[in-house]
Amino acid sequence: MAVSEEECSSIKSAPSSSSSSSSRYYLSKSVLRPSAVLQVLYAHLRSPSSNDVVFGKETSIELVVIDEDGNVQTVCDQPVFGIIKDLAVLPWNDKFRARRPQTQGKDLLVALSDSGKLSLLTFCIEMNRFFPITHVQLSNPGNIRDLPGRMLAVDSR
């Protein structure tokens, strides 16, 4: 909340019980989270039976669930360092043998960012956040259209 000059002058002229309280001014700032949803994905990220929806925003990934009444409940809203170019879901494949038991049966989230990296992410229920499994450098950092890593396509076979 910002204080206008009129409010400041009325505060200064108002009598107060202590002289030190009349010289104090407070300023409150708030930073807004990104609200524009650029990608929407459906996946089984928390467990093989969960029905999760991922909202990909410019600088954050939001994991939500939709209850029986159609209400959207946020499970996790995680900011990321950089700008997300594209998101995709890598579905669980029975032929694939995971080295990590915590990813068994769960889908993976694949992300491309302006850093030029392809990242495979899994959701950790205990920490309530996304964790990277691996990063692959595809191109130099930046948002140049000619470089690989601009758009993402996943083949689950």
Which descriptors would you attach to this protein?
single chain; 157 residues; four-stranded antiparallel beta sheet; 1 helix
Q: Can you walk me through this structure?
A:
Pfam families: Beta-prop_RSE1_1st. Residues 1-22 are annotated as: Disordered. This is RSE1/DDB1/CPSF1 first beta-propeller domain-containing protein. It comes from Trifolium subterraneum (Subterranean clover). The chain is mostly beta strands and 157 residues long. It has a domain at 33-137: PH-domain like, CATH 2.30.29. The chain is built from 1 helix and 8 strands; from the N terminus they run H-E-E-E-E-E-E-E-E. It has one helix at residues 5-13; strands spanning 37-43, 52-57, 60-66, 72-79, 84-90, 108-113, 117-124, 129-137. The strands form 2 sheets. Strands 1-2-3-4 form a 4-stranded antiparallel β-sheet, with no helix packed on it. A 4-stranded antiparallel β-sheet has the order 5-6-7-8, with no helix packed on it. Strand 2 (52-57) and strand 3 form a beta hairpin. Residues 1-14 have low confidence and may be disordered.
Strand order of the largest sheet: 1-2-3-4
Predict the CATH topology of the domain at 33-137.
Answer: PH-domain like
- First-last Cα distance: 54 Å
Give the C-level CATH assignment of the domain at 33-137: Mainly Beta
Spell out the helices and strands N to C: HEEEEEEEE
Question: What characterizes the major β-sheet?
Answer: 4 strands, antiparallel
Alpha-beta classification: mainly beta
Unreliable stretches, pLDDT < 50, 5 or more residues? 1-14
Radius of gyration: 23 Å
Q: Which percent band covers the strand fraction?
A: 35-45%
How much helical structure, as a percent, in the residues? under 10%
CATH architecture of the domain at 33-137: Roll
Q: How many helical elements?
A: 1
Q: Kindly state the mean pLDDT as a whole number? A: 77
The shape, in one word, is globular
